Amino acid sequence: MMNSELVRTIYPSPLGHMIILASGEGLCFVEFQKVPRNIFMEKRLKKWYTSPVITDGKNAFIESACSWLDDYFKKNFSLLEMPRLDLRGTDFELKVWEDLKNIPIGQTVSYGQIAGRLHKPTGARAVGGCVGRNPVSIIIPCHRVIGSGGSLTGYGGGLENKAWLLEHESLPFLKER
Fold first, then answer.
1. What range does the domain containing 148 cover?
2. Of 22, 52, 79, which one is at a domain's C-terminal end?
3. Which of 33, 44, 113, 147 would be 151's cystine partner, CB 3.0–4.6 Å?
């Protein structure tokens, strides 16, 4: 059995440090460095990568992710091009994450809307679970998914970060909604 070699770097975002991991195939994790997300990442690594060996450093995929995040946080949205990804998950997770990639900057959708687009009209909760398991935060914009009544719900990086990201994209989110 061959080891999965992954490269890790820490990205200093305005919202706190983020862990970026890339395989030889593409970007596989962008996560806020918080205990619950670190545990999530470790579990996914064990499930989807064969004996992962992680070394600190950079490769072309990490460089691409850092450049993408730099442009995002500087609001250079027109420069953003999806980095090459190495996503591993169930068929349904991959479909949900693919749908998330199509949510434009400056727009939000509900879990139910995604479920409808995936022909699972009663699958909002299942979609929510997949959104919560998105391993590539911000780049796959799970922060743009809100509750059906317009409420700011669930985000692995914390609701305060979700609100910040939406406001950063010129979507002021009213807490009183």
1. 91-168
2. 79
3. 147
DSSP category for residue 62: H
Per residue in 123-162, pLDDT tens?
999 999 999 999 999 999 999 999 888 888 888 888 999 9
Per residue in 22-72, pLDDT (tens digit) is 999 999 999 998 767 778 888 888 888 888 889 999 999 999 999 999 999
Count structural domains, the chain: 2
Residue 55's domain is classified under what CATH number?
3.30.160.70
Take residue 75 and report the two structure tokens written for it: 């609001």
pLDDT exceeds 50 at position 1 = no
Tell me the residue ranges of DSSP E strands in the chain.
5-13, 16-22, 27-32, 53-56, 109-110, 145-146
pLDDT (average), residues 95-105: 96
**Assigned domain for 85 exists:** no
Least Cα distance to 157 among 168, 93, 113 occurs for 168
HSE, side-chain direction, 13 A CA sphere, residue 111: 20
Q: How far apart, in Å, do the first and last CA atoms of the chain sit?
A: 52
Whether 97 and 161 share a structural domain: yes
- The yes-or-no answer on residue 28 being catalytic is no
